[in-house]
Every structure is written in structure tokens, then in C-alpha cells.
């Protein structure tokens, strides 16, 4: 069954033929973060795909993942290209390195997930919070409903983690 939803004024649609993304977002709608785990090499992957990027095996199962990690990189959007997001600038997009599967399969590899920075209630982070977050900030995933059977995975500062005294940020005005 296809899923239709909306996130920040932008329509979302996942069609029946896209079984992998349907499954992913259905788990998110249950406030569960699950990713595909390869049945051959036992590595977890993101984003969801039809085959393992490490060994090319097509078999996988959905594994629950603890969605906690640290900001590996980020981008601040001050000029939204998509008109649906213009009223929300500035907003922050995070590349988060999850604690799960760190340094796997190699020393410089990790399981990294992209999502917006939000407050714990799922609302986009205000400018004062954006200015505090940088590389090294500890974050935790939260989910925001986007309609029947779909939720968007997002990240907020992790209240259960000790935050670094100083995070790396691009110079600010």
C-alpha cells in the first residue's frame, strides 16, 4: 500500500513498488530505527538498498539500531532552494556517525545517517540552537509523524550524553 505524507509543507509519496523504502518509513512511523543488515557479511547499511554495498549480497533483514551518535559533518541552509523550506531558514542538516558499527568495515568507515537538526519535540532547531551544534556534538534520533504510516527520522542533542566542551564549527559572524 503506498504511503503519502507531508514534511514542512513538502509532499512525500512512497509507491508500492518501492518496498525497501516503504519498510524503512513504516518502522520510523512506529518510532523504531531499523536498518538492513546483510545476511552474508552481517554489516548494516544506510540508506536502504537492494544489495549490500560491502559484498553485493541481496539478502538482508531489518535490524533495530540504537540511533545515537556524533555529528560527523553539517551544513547550515540559509537560502532554501526548495520553496517549501524557505520559511524555515536557517536550518541545519547533519551527517551523524552512529555509535553502531563505528570503524567497520575499515578504520575510516562508519554507519552515517543524514537528517535535520531539531528540538526534542521534532520542530526544526531555532538559530540559537543551530549556533551551538557542530562536529562532535552528541545527538539522538527522534521521529516526526508525516502522515499515516510515515515518520521522518531527525536528530536532536542527546540529553543523556556528555557534550564536548568545544565542538568544531565553521567560523561564525
What would the keywords be for this entry?
about 170 residues; mainly beta; five-stranded antiparallel sheet; OB fold (Dihydrolipoamide Acetyltransferase, E2P)
Radius of gyration: 17 Å
Annotated CATH architecture: Beta Barrel
Major pleated sheet: 5 strands, antiparallel
Number of helices: 2
Into how many domains do the coordinates divide?
Answer: 1
Work out the helicity level: under 10%
CATH fold naming:
OB fold (Dihydrolipoamide Acetyltransferase, E2P)
First-residue to last-residue Cα separation: 48 Å
Low-confidence stretches: none
- Can you count the beta strands? 10
What structural class do helix, strand and pairing data support? mainly beta
- β-strand percent reads 35-45%
CATH class: Mainly Beta
Order of helices and strands: EEHEEEEEEHEE
Could you say which overall geometry the principal axes of the C-alpha atoms support?
A: globular
Overall pLDDT score:
94
**Biggest sheet, spatial arrangement of strands:** 8-7-6-9-10
Give an overview of the whole structure.
- The protein has 173 residues and is mainly beta.
- It has one domain: OB fold (Dihydrolipoamide Acetyltransferase, E2P) (Beta Barrel), CATH 2.40.50.
- It starts with a strand and ends in a 16-residue tail after the last strand.
- The protein has helices at 19-29, 127-130, and strands at residues 3-7, 10-14, 34-38, 44-45, 60-64, 68-77, 91-98, 112-116, 138-147, 150-157.
- The strands form 3 sheets. It has a 5-stranded antiparallel sheet, with helices on one face.
- The model has no long low-confidence stretch (mean pLDDT 94).
- The chain has 2 helices and 10 strands.
- 9% of the residues lie in helices and 36% in strands.
Amino acid at each position: 500500500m503506498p504511503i503519502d505524507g507531508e514534511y514542512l509543507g513538502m509532499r512525500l509519496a512512497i509507491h508500492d513498488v518501492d518496498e525497501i523504502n516503504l519498510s524503512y518509513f513504516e518502522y520510523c512511523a512506529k518510532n523504531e530505527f531499523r536498518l538492513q543488515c546483510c545476511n552474508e557479511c552481517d554489516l548494516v547499511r544506510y540508506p536502504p538498498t537492494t544489495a549490500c554495498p560491502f559484498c553485493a549480497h541481496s539478502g538482508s533483514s531489518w535490524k533495530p539500531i540504537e540511533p545515537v551518535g556524533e555529528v560527523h559533518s553539517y551544513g547550515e541552509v540559509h537560502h532554501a532552494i526548495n520553496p517549501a523550506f524557505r520559511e524555515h531558514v536557517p536550518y541545519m542538516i547533519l551527517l551523524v556517525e552512529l555509535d553502531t558499527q563505528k570503524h567497520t568495515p575499515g578504520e575510516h568507515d562508519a554507519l552515517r545517517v543524514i537528517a535535520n537538526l531539531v528540538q526534542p519535540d521534532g520542530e526544526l532547531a531555532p538559530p540559537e540552537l543551530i549556533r551551538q551544534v557542530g562536529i562532535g556534538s552528541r545527538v539522538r534520533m527522534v521521529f516526526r509523524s508525516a502522515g499515516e504510516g510515515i515518520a521522518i527520522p531527525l536528530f536532536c542533542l542527546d540529553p543523556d550524553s556528555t557534550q564536548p566542551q568545544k565542538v568544531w564549527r565553521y567560523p561564525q559572524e
